Amino acid sequence: MSPNRPGRPRDERVDAAILQATRVLLAEAGYAGLTVAAVAARAGIGKAAIYRRYATKQEMVFAATMHGAQVPQPPDTGSLRADLRWLAATITGMIGAPGVGGVLGGLLADMEDEAVATAMRGFAALERATIALILDRATARGELPAAPDPAFVHAVMMGAIFARLHVFGEGDREGFADDLASTVAGGLIHPAGGLPRQGDGTATPG
């Protein structure tokens, strides 16, 4: 990823103009029709200003529709289920926004390019760090005997929400977020078998 490249301090007004222009042009032209040149023109800046922030169109689009180098930090609600409810609602808000389904499809197709895939994995690592914090808190509270692999929980949560929104197209987002949080929390607290442990990919006995 390139959002934290060294150099002169970034102008937050330019940051905001780039992201807003990207969102507007995605709505007008779609993911395939979006170009860095068009975003620069709409934002009233040069392309160099964009490339100082984002190495590729895909990074710029991800930052505009999902998140950039900063991700929302989870509140400490005091329970794993409530923390996961926050996580489910946050993911739903990001990938359930109008037009994001098409954007995600385009990004997935472009991940055949290794540079794009590397950048997307970097964004995923930021998300998993947030999930790791939730799991570590639950472990410290004694809700979990050991922290499960954040990548496992990430895949379960993201996969279920993506399928619900963009494969099945079903509504009742709040009810689904509640159900998903309860199901995942219950499975982590009382696993029927074993769960992948953080760090080694092995399973803890249930």
TrEMBL record:
DNA-binding region: 35-54
The keyword RNA-binding is annotated on this UniProt entry: no
Protein name stated in the entry: TetR family transcriptional regulator
Keyword Transcription annotated: yes
Key words of the record: DNA-binding, Transcription, Transcription regulation
A GO molecular function held by the record: transcription cis-regulatory region binding
Residues in HTH tetR-type domain copies: 12-72
Domain of life of the source: Bacteria
